[in-house]
Amino acid sequence: MTRRLIARLFTSVDGVVSAPNTFQFDSFDDDLARIVGGSIAQVDDVILGRVMYQQWAGYWPAAGLADPFADFINPVAKHVASRTLTPSDITWANAELIEGDLESFVRALKQTDGRDISIEGSISVVRQLFLAGLVDTLTLIVHPVIAGPGERLFGGDVTTTRLRLIGHEVTSSGNAVMTYALRAGESG
User: Fold this and answer.
1) From CA 94, how far away is CA 83, in angstroms rounded?
2) What DSSP line would sit under 98-124, residue for residue?
3) Pairing mode of beta strands 5-12, 137-143
4) Within 10 A of 72 (CB to CB), how many other CB atoms are there?
5) Could you say which of 20, 75, 113, 166 has the lowest number of CB atoms within 10 Å?
6) What's the confidence (pLDDT) of residue 186?
7) 107-128: pLDDT as tens digits
8) Measured between alpha carbons, how far is 171 from 76 in angstroms, rounded to an integer?
9) Buried/exposed code over 127-158 (b: 16+ C-beta within 10 A; e: otherwise)
10) Residues 179 and 166: beta-carbon distance below 8 Å
11) pLDDT for 163
12) pLDDT score of 185
């Protein structure tokens, strides 16, 4: 049995996926909390990139147990993808550095027992693993806002890659939650 690798990113209508905290504040509603909560309830392992790890390791351990995301992210197994961090840099509880090739690590992790594996944030990790055909579902949560400058998930160097829509929902605040998978036979 192969475990699913899922990715979920917040984005603006104009495709910005970086720093969603700067544009999602007035549209993160109860519907979206239910959707995200349902998704993370199925996760045993999380993959983080270096930047997300460093940001979150400095915040979530002190966030306290009153926050539902802290209840999830602090105890879950965390695997950190980085070419610059060393094992001694990884200090957050239940976190380890991925040593060696990221794609090989993910292929092996998907073959272990457990529930879903999630990539949290980590734009470059989502991009790499999705285009390698390792991400089973990519959920884009489109907030009703134009963010302007910021990083997009896919740039002009990506070849045409066909997706199939496997789920969608619109929340009460107008967020469009769309879940995609690669079409059969597609890779980046």
Assistant:
1) 20
2) PPS-HHHHHHHHHTSSSSEEEEES-HH
3) parallel
4) 18
5) 113
6) 60
7) 999 999 999 999 998 999 999 9
8) 27
9) bbbbbeebbbbbbbbbbbbebeebeebeeeee
10) yes
11) 95
12) 66
